[in-house]
Amino acid sequence: MMSVKSLDPPNDSDGTASPGAPLASDPDSSEQLEERLYEEKRIRLKVDLRLCTIAGLLCSLNLLDSGIISSASVTSMLQDLDLDQGNRYSVSILIFTVASVCFQLPATLAVRIVGPRIFFASATFCFGLITLCTAFIHTWKEMILMRVLLGISMSGIYPGLALLISSWYRREELQLRFAFLQSGEVIVLATGGIVNYGLNRLQGNGELKGWQWMFLVQGLVACVIGIATYWWIVDFPEQSDQSFRFLSKEEARIATSRIQRDRGDVVPAPFTWQEILRHFLDAKIYGFAASFFLLNLVSTSLSYFLPIILQSGMGFSTNKSILLSAPPYYYAVIPVVLSSLVGDKYRLRGPVIVFNSLCLIAGFIMLGFADQVTVRYIGTYLATGAYISNWAALNGYLASNITGQWKRAVTAAAVTACNGLGGVAGSFIVRQQEAPRYVTAIWVSISSHIFIICIIAAFSIFFYFENAKQRKGRKVIEETDGFRYTY
Question: Which of 91, 156, 313, 405 is deepest in the core (most CB within 10 A)?
Answer without folding.
Answer: 156
